[in-house]
Design brief:
alpha/beta, Glutaredoxin, 2 domains, five-stranded mixed beta sheet, two-stranded parallel sheet, 7 strands
Amino acid sequence: MNARRIVSIALAGFSLLATVARADLEVIYDNGATRPLAPFLEAFGETPPPKPVVKQGTDLGAADVSGLLPIRSPGLAPGPVPRRPLRLPNSATIARPFFLIGSDPASRDWLTKHRDQLKELGAVGMLVQAESAEDLEIIARIADGLPILPAPASDIGRALGIKHFPVLISRRGIEQ
């Protein structure tokens, strides 16, 4: 078989593969120097996907928090957490301290008592148990600007061997 024939078969195979493997484009990482893909697609005779059109009058305001509720973390419950060192797999480290709380009275008291210390540490919180929008509002009021993300954390609890909250996880260890 001559070289030209091999090249033409390979190109046909690649174009078939490109047609089959084509998927919608998605930005995974943008460091600020990202360039548009359109010129590259045009070089191959393809047209870039159309940009999404936002209709005028569409409300793009804040998300409705009621869609997040209730927040439940099976395997985690309010209770005492003995202080212990943090053991992470391999060479993993905690880049920023974080804490898990619920909307229960013990978590609210703990957050009130430790809020200033948590702010000094630059800690980020996860509200792992809440039933109502009122629970979210109470925690936000107590947090007083401390960042808290409402989200389940059963997987984090399992990974770190934590069964109770409120708890602070940092390089110093796991503590209440």
